[in-house]
Amino acid sequence: MLLGIIPFGVITGVAMVASGIPPLAAMLMSILVFAGASMVASAQLLASSAPALLIVFTTLVINLRFMMYSASLRLHFADAPLGRRLAVAYLTADNVYGLMLARFSEHPEDPGKFDYFLGAGLVVWLAWQAAVLAGVLIGAGVPAAWRLEFAAPLAFVAMTIPLLRDRAMVAAAVAAALVIALSTNMPLKLNILLAAALGIAVGLLFEKKR
Amino acid sequence: MTLWLVLLGMALVTFALRAAFLLLPPGVELPALFRRALRYVPAAVLTAIWAPEVLVQNEQLPAGAVAIAVAWRWRTTFATIIAGLLALHLFAWLI
């Protein structure tokens, strides 16, 4: 699993520096924001001189999935002290959440949930920051012919596919992909927002009535 | 200046999303529709992020198909990235 976030972290570092973000600001962003996809997207938007508000809004949409993770983690940590809940919030990342789910979703009464989350979160956090730092330092040093920038979408493919376990989930993803395919000329990544919104709506429509 | 505004805004928004439900007082319930909609957020948003790079008319499309197949079969991020990158170069050479 760490093997997956390391190339993605390196790409994120390279993408930020390549779009003109100074190395120190890039590392600061990596520590404060700690969410790779939104950092790659905002680097591209910054390079195209998009307005700040739009970049922040795009970040909101891309990172909306963290809100879903926090709703799910609430089941495990609602009674934890505030400090621990804040630590869980900060360390929430796709793969940390995935590990937590794999370990505790079948056995929610098992002890050591916070220690497990903290351990997984810190390992992922350290590996991620080291990878971003490497990317920032390498900067434009990676030969463009290697086309490593394609690793970022590939990392997201790897995160998406295991989610597609039922009809409604597949419908949500297919709808999002269709919207993207039909709206590639939309400026400033607005089609990402549109695709996300319509994908969610289609998922709801395909959901079995309960 | 824009950079610092963006950085601060991104940090605040992202942390707020991560903390949202963890900071909600116990007993507070959310509208059912909202909770159901949240379930589809990762699949829809993640797809909206990778689809623009994959659904283009060159070697990225078949390379993306290879990556999806590998992700489906083995479910490991590293294998997906390696297979996708190798396929990208292979198809670029073939096309």
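qc> Chain A has eleven helices and no strands.
qc> done
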